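TA notes, week 10

Several of you asked for a full example with nothing omitted. So below is the full record: structure tokens for the whole chain, then the designed sequence directly under it. When grading your own attempts, check the secondary structure regions first.
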């Protein structure tokens, strides 16, 4: 089968096309999936630059998000049949092969039926960002109807679905973006107020829009500087949730505000083999799939590349200006 191998940590040139044997089902509950598309996420580029998180050897196949059709099942599989369309976030961290390939094998427990209204490209864009946004807003952030939430990078991969999930929860939704076009998109995805960070101090704007109270929840996806500044526009007794390590900084103001600081890393259940937490993630995919099929939630794919051009997708991610999601396709 065709695949893309990460040969060593480094620049995009370490991603090399390869021909590999098709994987075999080794356990009774395993399913073999012919991958039709694979999502590309920032974590893929970080692993490529810095090294794998799992214990597996190099070369390795990256890519956590996949969508495809079941082509074979183990003897004890009872959730899927050959021909079923599935989507999932599995592998690609180093301990198990990822989805930059034409085939993969995984336990049936970690796959979910694809939403019937999505094609493979759209489905491959979804799992990691949907689970991440849900975790930030609903699990870590405890978002409730009527609260105000600030979502940074509202036009990005996590941001564009976070806007929609926040609206579904009945919150007042504020978003930061970096262009007039992304401001329009953010409003389409559910933002009530949009702040162009190039033209305004987002801290001052959030405080103005909330009458000086700040946002009840801030979902931070950008980096340490934005995390530190966000403390100043998070409401007293509010929540500030980040995807990243904020690094060393003073938390004196956060302490005075009695903030709850939360971290969201949706990869933890895979890395630490926390099966109950992974079951929760599958429940998230099922619920999001229902909302997608009902027309209440959508996934935006801004660009696709054939599998052999995975390096081009990584270059685009690393610009830091990607709208929605990027996806690799398999012929």
């Amino acid at each position: 089968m065709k695949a893309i191998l990460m040969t060593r940590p480094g620049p995009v040139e370490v991603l090399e096309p390869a021909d590999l044997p098709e994987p075999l089902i080794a356990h009774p509950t395993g399913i073999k999936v012919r991958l039709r598309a694979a999502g590309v996420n920032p974590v893929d580029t970080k692993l490529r630059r810095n090294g794998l998180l799992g214990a597996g050897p190099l070369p390795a196949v990256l890519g956590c998000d996949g969508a495809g059709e079941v082509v074979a099942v183990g003897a004890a599989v009872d959730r899927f049949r050959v021909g079923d369309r599935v989507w999932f976030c599995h592998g690609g961290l180093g301990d198990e092969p990822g989805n930059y390939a034409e085939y993969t094998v995984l336990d049936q427990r970690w796959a979910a039926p694809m939403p019937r209204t999505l094609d493979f490209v759209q489905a491959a864009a979804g799992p990691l960002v949907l689970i991440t946004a849900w975790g930030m807003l609903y699990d870590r952030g405890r978002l409730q109807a009527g609260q105000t939430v600030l979502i940074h990078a509202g036009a990005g991969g996590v941001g564009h679905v976070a806007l929609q999930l926040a609206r579904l929860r009945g919150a007042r939704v504020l978003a930061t973006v970096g262009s007039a076009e992304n401001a329009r998109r953010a409003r389409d995805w559910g933002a009530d107020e949009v702040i162009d960070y190039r033209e305004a101090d987002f801290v001052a704007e959030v405080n103005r829009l909330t009458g000086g109270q700040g946002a009840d929840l801030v979902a931070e996806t950008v980096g340490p500087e934005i995390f530190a500044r966000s403390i100043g526009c998070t409401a007293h007794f509010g929540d500030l949730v980040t995807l990243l390590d904020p690094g060393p900084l003073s938390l004196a103001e956060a302490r005075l505000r009695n903030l709850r600081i939360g971290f969201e890393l949706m990869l933890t259940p895979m890395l630490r083999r926390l099966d109950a937490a992974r079951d929760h993630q599958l429940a998230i995919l099922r619920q999001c799939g229902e909302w997608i099929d009902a027309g209440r939630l959508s996934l935006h794919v801004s660009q696709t590349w054939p599998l052999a051009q995975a390096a081009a997708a990584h270059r685009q991610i690393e610009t830091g200006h990607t709208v929605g999601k990027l996806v690799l396709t398999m012929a």
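The domain at 2-126+273-329 is CATH 3.90.180.10 (Quinone Oxidoreductase; Chain A, domain 1). Use that as a sanity check on your answer.
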